[in-house]
Design brief:
This is POP1 protein. This protein has 289 residues and is α+β, with helices and mostly antiparallel strands. Among the domains are: 50 residues, no CATH class; 113 residues, 2-Layer Sandwich (Alpha-Beta Plaits). Helices cover 29% and strands 24% of the residues. It has 10 helices and 12 strands. A hairpin with a 6-residue loop joins strand 10 and strand 11. The relative contact order is 0.18.
Amino acid sequence: KQAEKAVHQKKEQSKTKCRKARRRHINLVAEFNHRQRKNIWLETHIWHAKRFHMVKKWGYCLGNSPTEKSYRACYRAMTKQCLLQDLSYYCCLELKGKENELLKQLARICSIDTGLTFQEASCLSGRFEGSLNLYRADRYPEDMLGPVTFIWRPRDGSENRQLWIWVHPALKQDILKELKAIFQCSEPEEICISEPVTASVQEEKQVEVVTSLGNKRKKEDKEGEKAVPVKKIIGDGTRDPFQSYSWISRTTGVAISDRSMEILRYRLIGPLSHSILTETLKAASVQTV
């Protein structure tokens, strides 16, 4: 009897939900997708946003300076332990084609007088990462484009090779334009379809419901189940989502792809960097069909 009495005397639930209910996963993801329409967030954005002053640069939202006095802690980590930096905002340009054709055209935008080139034996094997300065085709020492880093994919027995070039987002458009010119890549191979945009419009409608303080109806898909939005990054901070992101040349057979925000990049500094990587990364078992 006491239990039944308590049920009848239970107060009506408040229309304004508590903070825990408002911060459910289904609401947070939709809100995050909406907030990074203009400035893309890195995978570590939430961690940095709680501890850093954020700035909007090059189409990204990046951590500029810490909110606490952590300079001594960072210095101690670099000298005795390990410090990790998120460099995922760097843009990755992927080149695929025959090795001879790639080296022949890439030699036009760099010079051996400045140091190593794409033909360096240690880098060409794919064991080490190289860095150099790029210039406009056949214009050295004038018209410098900027510094880049690159890494070759190890040989697999065929004459086709794969090269990744990492560039700063402020230099991406100029370097991409020069690469497309020397390899004569003018025809788009892949074009972004409008499906992610449609999904984002649906997520925007969900955000409108989230921002209201009244009762929130449960989102349901066509089958009547609860629809959970998925985090989707449309393009990146340096690329229009409606433009093509891969080009191919019929004359040289070289394909250039924009892999920005598809490959994460981290930098580890400190004497314990190698030991941390050894404990973190595990070798995958190779399965042959």
